[in-house]
């Protein structure tokens, strides 16, 4: 069985290779940054087991590592090393030759993830291949590996080229690649410290909680606003679900938890399209594409964000209370 830990170990190995590449090139800050990230991916399950057994020092060291990552991101110059002219010309020639075929492997990832997930649910024997306890993530991991093989086939690249180009992309993204994980953790911390209860009290004073529509609008607006502030819908979701979704919409008005959760997360993504805090989605692409306007991606996405918000509100009103 492809346990989810295997994919985490694979990510840890890739981060280690990236760190070694940087250290070899005397980019010590970048190398140390990626080297610190190897630890939670390679030993995360052991840290959780130790913490559950009452041994807290490994988790405390991981907390110190997070602080060190923040210091390195603030003080060091993370980013990809300068291209050689011959390397740049080689990539441009390859892009001209392959053209839109370059997108095929990337498009395979969501398609294969969906097919593997559905197969894991309905086909007998798939539970012996995919980790049923983390079916979505194991499907995504296997789909990514298959897409990498497809990219090999399309580009006819050298065997180690995926590592070199993956490292180059990771260096280009830099600290922004950590934002989804860190902000999701921040949302969990907010929920655990009672921020959701505070929001529930504030909402109860501002809106008529007996109105289902008012509660729904507050939940949707809160998901968008908190996502804009924190940069990630994963961070906003536990706070808004604890403060508005669970006590008001589900318990008081009888909303369906599954559809409310799914559409609520999608509503949060409307905020992702509108915020520079989602740097890995909105700022890094502008840098990589060398756009003159660093907020050009956000401006282009704003109409889609508001249109999607309106559609999500209609879907929640229709589906969550059937």
Low-confidence segments, given as residue ranges, are none
Strand segment count: 0
Give the count of structural domains.
2
Mean pLDDT: 83
The assembly state of the depicted protein chains is single chain
Rg? 22 Å
Mass-distribution shape? globular
Order of helices and strands: HHHHHHHHHHHHHHH
Walk me through the structure.
This protein is mainly α and 322 residues long. It has 2 domains: 171 residues, no CATH class; 142 residues, no CATH class. 77% of the residues lie in helices and 0% in strands. The chain is built from 15 helices and no strands. It is globular, with a radius of gyration of 22 Å. The chain starts with a helix and ends with a helix. The model has no long low-confidence stretch (mean pLDDT 83).
Which helices and strands, and how do they pair?
Elements: H1 4-24, H2 28-52, H3 57-75, H4 85-98, H5 103-122, H6 135-155, H7 161-173, H8 179-192, H9 195-206, H10 212-230, H11 233-252, H12 257-272, H13 279-282, H14 284-288, H15 296-319
Helix pairs in contact: 1-2, 1-7, 2-3, 5-6, 8-11, 9-11, 10-11, 10-12, 10-15, 11-12, 12-15
Protein name: Permease
InterPro entries: DUF979
Keywords: Membrane, Transmembrane, Transmembrane helix
Summarize the structure.
The protein is mostly helical. It has helices at 4-24, 28-52, 57-75, 85-98, 103-122, 135-155, 161-173, 179-192, 195-206, 212-230, 233-252, 257-272, 279-282, 284-288, 296-319.
């Amino acid at each position: 069985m492809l346990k989810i830990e295997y994919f985490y170990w694979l990510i840890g190995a890739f981060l280690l290779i990236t760190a070694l590449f940087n250290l070899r090139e005397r980019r010590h800050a970048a190398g140390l940054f990626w080297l610190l990230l190897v630890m939670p991916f390679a030993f995360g399950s052991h840290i959780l087991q130790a913490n559950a057994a009452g041994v807290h020092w490994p988790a405390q060291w991981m907390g110190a590592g997070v602080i060190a990552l923040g210091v390195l991101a603030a003080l060091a110059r993370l980013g990809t090393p300068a291209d050689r002219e011959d390397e740049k010309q080689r990539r441009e020639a390859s892009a001209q030759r392959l053209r839109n075929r370059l997108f095929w492997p990337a498009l395979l990832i969501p398609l294969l993830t969906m097919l593997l997930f559905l197969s894991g649910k309905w086909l007998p024997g798939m539970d012996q291949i995919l980790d049923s306890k983390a079916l979505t993530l194991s499907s995504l991991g296997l789909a990514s590996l298959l897409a990498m093989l497809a990219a090999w086939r399309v580009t006819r690249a050298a065997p180690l080229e995926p590592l070199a180009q993956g490292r180059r992309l990771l260096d280009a993204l830099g600290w922004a690649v950590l934002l989804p994980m860190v902000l999701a953790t921040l949302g969990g911390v907010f929920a655990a410290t009672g921020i959701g209860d505070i929001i529930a009290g504030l909402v109860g004073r501002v809106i008529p909680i007996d109105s289902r529509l008012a509660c729904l609008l507050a939940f949707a607006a809160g998901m968008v606003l908190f996502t804009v502030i924190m940069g990630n819908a994963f961070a906003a979701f536990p706070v808004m679900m604890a403060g508005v979704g669970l006590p008001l919409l589900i318990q008081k008005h009888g909303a369906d938890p599954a559809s409310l959760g799914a559409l609520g997360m999608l509503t949060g993504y409307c905020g992702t399209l509108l915020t520079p805090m989602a740097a890995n989605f909105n700022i890094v692409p502008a840098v990589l594409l060398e756009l003159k306007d660093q907020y050009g991606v956000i401006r282009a996405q704003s109409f889609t964000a508001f249109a999607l918000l309106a559609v999500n509100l209609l879907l929640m009103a229709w589906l969550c209370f059937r």
